[in-house]
Write a structure and sequence with these properties.
2 copies of one chain form a homodimer. By secondary structure, chain A is mainly β. Chain A has helices at 24-27, 29-36, 141-144, 175-179, 192-199, 224-229, 393-400; strands at residues 41-42, 77-80, 90-93, 111-113, 127-131, 137-139, 149-157, 182-191, 207-212, 219-223, 232-237, 240-241, 251-253, 266-272, 287-288, 294-295, 304-309, 320-329, 335-341, 349-350, 352-353, 363-371, 376-384, 413-416, 422-425. Chains A and B meet through helix 2, strand 1, strand 3, strand 5 and strand 6 of A and helix 2, strand 3, strand 5, strand 7 and strand 8 of B.
């Protein structure tokens, strides 16, 4: 079988240096075909040989399906604390570089837990709303199921995601290791506002303390305004009941807010005048500044984007056409634009955003790239509909220094070498 | 703990007979709280007792997560042919009444297979494009991975879904048993048009025969126009690689077309002048009419809706507020409107459509309902953006008779009795 040669005859319009093509390539079939042709080979013998799996009936049906055994490497990477007594303290990261689209399948949604995943009997679980309310209320799962529901596709990102980039020297790491505390699902639940209005909010209430039913009793103070806005008490994740590692049977969803505030295994909401200064918002989840002070209560995750393809572990196989693809998001709203660069940020071209672009959800972006076979630095830069733009690494470090590990949202870089290997780089 | 009584003081505006409320209930928090209050109970002792699972650390992390063991009944229902030699011939149905939102988690996506699920080695799998093309091409998975991708959230519905309703007398059955050959996922893949344009379509080509790599070599003829429009050669389902029972490693996606045409385990696309009259489009998947003739090549699934909550198996627990929720879809485009009735179609009120409403995707609708405790017949009626309206059962039967089992899209009914039990009814 021979390689087809028509891509050699093709002279696409370049939109930025080092091979970034005009998005028009995606819209005009003939251009794509010419650009992409390096991927196919002319058919030799026809018909195709009949594979062994067509010669006998396949497997029967399963009640609950699983991925192909050939995809056994598409798993979360687990980084628990080393002590077996604390096995549930740590993270399990989403393999972003092995996924596409925007939805994270439930088996691969990232998991950051502070004392493991409790095995909660839903019939025994209760949600209490109390504190500065006219009438404390307690809800069973069955009671919650009677309330009006809403669904929304929303990302959740750990405040510590990408924190590994806030070091003086770039360390090895792939998209999963560096950025994998990020996932996106369709969440369905009851508006928290509905439940709070039923309890009756006292005028003095300004905060709500949310507590989880894990052994850590993970607790965060949430402004009442957020609870009355778009907060959901979620029962469903991508259609089915919330997964145990994501808060079964109830998770608080605070769209756009840092991951740990989306309290898992939600059991208690206490309305208060001020924040409770829980261990989880004082010993952790504050943004350390160069002068030793810290920002507390930094809630929304900032506008951000990452390139998932190409990325470390996905080697390019020779010069030619590749699609640059990645994810963009903002805790403040919708993504308005993503730009890509193949020369370390010297020149930029707009990427295509996959519709629908939803507020506080992951947005898949794509851009056509003709790799010359030479070195390249791939970057992406997101802008949201509030006008916020993802900062450069230099801008970020100038403001925050190199000590903090939370809310890192600077432009990140993959260096492509002449072998087509990608690696984490500071540029 | 006592029941709160404020719902008794509340007089909501009714939008249709037998308790269907105005959608405004969902928009005004106080109204929802009053309507929904029957679900909660006033808190007795505070604080809540500490459950056993908070007294010790929880489970550690898992590489690929699973649902809670308490959800072990949320599974597909399997209806294979009775002969063990044909274990892979039949269906596995999605438990629609136990899900919410619009995305079907991959483990529960319905599965209709004609000779079981082949265990395909992706490194050995090939896709051949041949027939009336300038240059036959063969693609490996790795080659396909280099092409530009698109993502879209799309329903797939088996042509035989709901066919159990096309009988003279209503039979017992829940939403899963009757309507469960219906699922929705975010699919990601390469535009088929891109691959066809690379091969070069001969002017005489008008059809494309798609063949699967199962032992049935499941084959369907697809109009070339559809292939050049929105067809995708999918590699990903809800972010991860397509599941084995849904076509791993490649599934053809023909948005809106009947399920079996979305050929699983896609291995061959042959461009032809006419349809090939494959066994799968002559012995099956034709629409039998009262006069003994049949419609062939009925591709798009018709505008349709079903109520998932309440539905058989989800008994109501006493008079009061309930949310009527369900799914609407059309193979022709977007859902424009869904109306609900609690009196068997004598009066109707519009439901709320969950945004975003996407073309050829499931749309979740919801409507507030104050159940009196008396008998009710719940129905939903969808209209799509082409103006097509879901027919009544009488209209459907008058045109099609009672012999066909495919493309049944009439309004369906759940009868609610005075105990709150729901059952399939013809009304």
């Amino acid at each position: 079988m021979r390689k087809r040669g028509n891509s050699k005859e093709w002279r696409p319009e370049h939109a930025a240096a080092n091979g970034i093509l005009n998005r028009r390539v995606f819209l005009e079939g003939a251009l794509v075909a010419a650009a992409a042709g390096a991927g196919s080979t002319a058919a030799g013998a026809e018909p195709l040989p009949v594979p062994s799996w067509m010669k006998q009936p396949g497997a029967g049906f399963s009640a609950y399906g699983q991925p192909s055994p050939f995809e056994s490497k598409v798993v979360r990477s687990i980084a628990p604390a080393p002590n077996p007594a604390t096995q549930g303290i740590g993270t399990a990261r989403t393999p972003l570089q092995l996924l596409n689209g925007t939805i994270t399948p439930n088996g691969l949604h990232f998991d950051r837990s502070h004392s493991g995943t409790p095995n909660i009997d839903p019939d025994q679980h209760r949600l209490l709303i109390h504190g500065l309310v006219k009438q404390p209320l307690v809800f069973t799962l069955e009671a919650l199921s009677r309330y009006p529901m809403q669904s929304r596709i929303t990302f959740i990102e750990c405040a510590g995601n990408s924190g590994a980039l806030n070091t003086a020297q770039a360390q090895p790491g792939n998209a999963q290791a560096i950025h994998g505390l990020l996932s996106c699902a369709e969440w369905t639940g009851v508006r928290l506002a509905t439940l709070l209005e039923e309890a009756g909010v006292e005028p003095s209430a300004k905060w709500v303390v949310a507590e989880g039913a894990d052994a850590a009793a993970m607790s965060r103070s949430v402004p009442l305004a957020k609870c009355m806005d778009d907060a959901l008490v979620c029962l469903y994740q991508n259609g089915e009941r919330v997964r145990p590692s994501n808060g079964y049977p109830i998770r608080l969803l605070l769209p756009g807010f840092e991951g740990n505030m989306n309290v898992k295994w939600l059991r208690r909401l206490k309305l208060t005048e001020g924040p409770v200064m829980a261990k989880d918002e004082t010993s952790k989840y504050t943004v350390l500044l160069p002068d030793g002070k810290a920002w507390q209560f930094v809630f929304p995750m900032e506008v951000k984007s990452i390139i998932t393809h190409p990325s470390p572990g996905l080697a390019l196989r020779g010069a030619g056409f590749y699609e640059i693809a990645g994810l963009a998001w903002s805790g403040q709203g919708r993504i308005r634009q993503v730009e890509v660069s193949a020369d370390g940020g010297n020149s930029w071209a707009p990427a295509v955003l996959q519709e629908p672009v939803l507020s506080k959800a992951l947005t898949r972006f794509r851009a056509p790239w003709q790799w010359s076979g030479g070195p390249a630095i791939l970057q992406s830069r997101a802008t949201d509909d509030t006008g916020r733009v993802q900062p450069t690494r230099a801008q970020f470090v100038a403001e925050r220094g190199l000590r903090g590990q939370y809310h890192y949202n600077a432009i990140s870089s993959w260096r492509i070498d002449e072998k087509g290997e990608a690696s984490n780089a500071f540029a």
